[in-house]
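Subject: for your reference before the review

Hello V.,

The reviewers asked for a structural picture of the protein, and I figured it would be easier to keep everything in one thread rather than splitting it across files. Below is the amino acid sequence we used in the manuscript, unchanged from the supplementary table.
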Amino acid sequence: MSNIINPVDLTSELIKCKSLTPKSAGSLDIIISLLNDLGFNCKKINFGEGNEKVENLYARFGTLEPNIAFAGHVDVVPTGDIKNWSIDPFGGQVKEGKIWGRGAADMKSGIASFIAAVSEFLKTYKDFGSISFIITSDEEGKAINGTKKIVDWLISKSEIISGCIVGEPTNINKMGDTIKIGRRGSYSGQLTVKGIQGHVGYPHLADNPIHLLLKMLEPFSNVYLDDGTKEFQPSSVMVTSIDVGNDASNVIPGEVEARFNIRFNTLHSVNSLNSMLEKQFNSITKNYKFDFFCNAEPFVTHDEFLKSTLKKAVKKIVKINPEESTSGGTSDARFITKICPVIEFGLVGKTMHKVDENVLVNDIKKLTNIYNQFLINYFGVRSSD
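And here is what came back from the structure prediction:
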């Protein structure tokens, strides 16, 4: 078996792969090579065609249960204007006690830390269950041919996952302060309201769709739809754009379009949101078109063993009792929850998606130790020495 893997060196190597979503740019090949050396059975699973083709990986060590999985993504968001970066965004440079580059926080360091933790764990322990990796290159984009389809593939193969940690950068200020136990749902709407175009000096001959739209969206000015629950923040509505396409100040437009997003908790469902919106819109006008897309339902994990096992590992390594949270955006945990209990824990996410993205080198080492301790706790193993 190969030597224990250095998580900082591996993070740097992965950052150097320009894996702009949905491309893996060789990063999965690096991971597969390392996992093969550790004794994993690796399966590269591709979905999609042409420019939509996505490389995914499922790797497993062992055949027994329980089978604990680590999930993550190698794809990253674009850098924006590179001139705004003080370092090479794909250089993987280590300086000032930090490692820099796109994906440093979100989330190549998380993947590197878990691989390093597994390499250390396997050096010391045997006679446990199984350890698996679920890695995709389609999380930051459309997320159609990534983890969502891996989950379907696992179900088709009758592959049982007992529990899963997603290595997203969950911590807010310092290592160990937050674990994610669920996520709100995401519902996006596009509302197009029809009116009658006309001259602003003759409003009685026109029907201004903007005025109608503002009335239709008026309840959203409150932002929150409820008071939240024990596990979740209040459901919130944000209007993200209102477009008329009218450059003339003396013309009443004939059509206006608005887009909005609802982050909703378990007090709501897609059907209940549709009913609420239809009732509100129809009370103002029937002359509209509405389209929606829901790419995430809300979920919360109640598996106390999985949560407490991770919390104990965090407490032992960094002396902090992490808080449970469901805040923030969506993640691939929304797909994995269909097959097993899932929680999220990674690095501090302050710089994710930002210019000069970076994380502390010491935090990568701490995360590796936390993951290793989690595996020890989870399997309840003793040293094989």
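For the response letter, the relevant points are probably these. The mean pLDDT is 96. The CA atoms of residues 310 and 374 lie 6 Å apart.

Happy to draft the paragraph if you're swamped.

O.
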